[in-house]
């Protein structure tokens, strides 16, 4: 199977027409040689573009190769393009049709253009390898695409082998980090949470400790301009959460409340019933993720060594 990127008009001027309105591939390269292209009389087409390119044989040959791809690629070959920061893909019917007197041609899409993989996940540009998306800068109309095997797996919704291997390692790493966190002395667990907030750009207002009887951490985010009430518990219960939640509601100066723990004594599903959007719950899984993201693994290892 061949894979080709197609630019749908200069500056994407045909993207909406092709993808949203008509479900087609559309080729410019307007010329009077549509029938010759269908019949494979490529020398005639080449001579036309050689004259159009004022004798530049390299440019004329590149034009011809792109036109031939449009006419000759089979229905099993794959076409991709980019629209609204998503990658779209399709297969196209073999027949090429002229749609106006100027020689503009189209191929109907088999089914429809899709911006999702075969498992239903959207193919956002930011989640694609740059060697695939760089074709957006191609100055012509049709070109090949690097990493064909990667692209096929992406469209099929398959995890790349190296990504799967890394995910398996991360699952094991996270499990080990959770075990290390659970073994921290309660004061070190509070310090760890303080470091996570600090590494995330939050600024501590009150000193870590028990000077405030109802607050473990009082922090402020310069970016969001929000102030947060943070309560940290090695072991937590629903009753403790309710107590601190009632306290939080009494303080009008706080915009958010974080309730953080590594072990829950009781049914943790009770916490999920909280509908207040200002309240954030961090369990051991979330804390472990943040330890990795904040680069605090070495600190944790040093504490537990």
From TrEMBL:
Domain Restriction endonuclease type IV Mrr: 184-290
Pfam assignment, any one: Mrr_cat
Biological process, per Gene Ontology: DNA restriction-modification system
Molecular functions per Gene Ontology: DNA binding; endonuclease activity
The protein's name in its UniProt record: Restriction endonuclease type IV Mrr domain-containing protein
Organism of this sequence: Pseudoalteromonas gelatinilytica
């Amino acid at each position: 199977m061949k894979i080709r990127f197609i630019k749908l008009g200069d500056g994407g001027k045909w993207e909406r027409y092709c993808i949203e309105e008509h479900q087609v591939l559309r080729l410019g390269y307007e010329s009077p040689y549509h029938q010759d292209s269908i019949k494979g009389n490529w020398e005639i087409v080449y001579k036309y573009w050689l004259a159009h390119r004022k004798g530049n044989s390299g440019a004329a040959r590149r034009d011809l190769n792109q036109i031939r791809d449009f006419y000759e690629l089979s229905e099993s070959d794959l076409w991709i393009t980019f629209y609204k920061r998503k990658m779209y893909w399709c297969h196209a019917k073999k027949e090429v049709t002229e749609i106006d007197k100027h020689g503009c041609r189209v191929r109907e899409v088999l089914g429809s253009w899709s911006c999702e993989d075969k498992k239903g996940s959207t193919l956002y540009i930011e989640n694609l390898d740059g060697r695939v998306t760089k074709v957006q800068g191609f100055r012509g109309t049709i070109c090949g695409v690097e990493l064909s095997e990667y692209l096929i797996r992406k469209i099929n919704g398959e995890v790349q082998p190296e990504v799967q291997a890394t995910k398996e390692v991360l699952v094991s790493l996270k499990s080990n980090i959770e075990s290390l966190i659970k073994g921290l002395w309660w004061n070190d667990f509070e310090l760890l949470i303080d470091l996570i907030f600090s590494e995330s750009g939050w600024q501590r207002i009150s000193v870590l400790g028990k000077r405030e009887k109802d607050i473990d951490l009082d922090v402020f985010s310069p970016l969001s301009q929000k102030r947060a009430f943070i309560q940290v518990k090695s072991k937590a219960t629903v009753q403790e959460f309710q107590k601190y939640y009632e306290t939080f509601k009494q303080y009008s100066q706080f915009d958010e409340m974080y309730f953080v723990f590594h072990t829950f004594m009781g049914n943790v599903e009770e916490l999920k019933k909280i509908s207040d959007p200002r309240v954030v719950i961090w369990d051991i899984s979330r804390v472990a993720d943040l330890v990795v993201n904040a680069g605090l693994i070495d600190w944790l290892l040093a504490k537990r060594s």
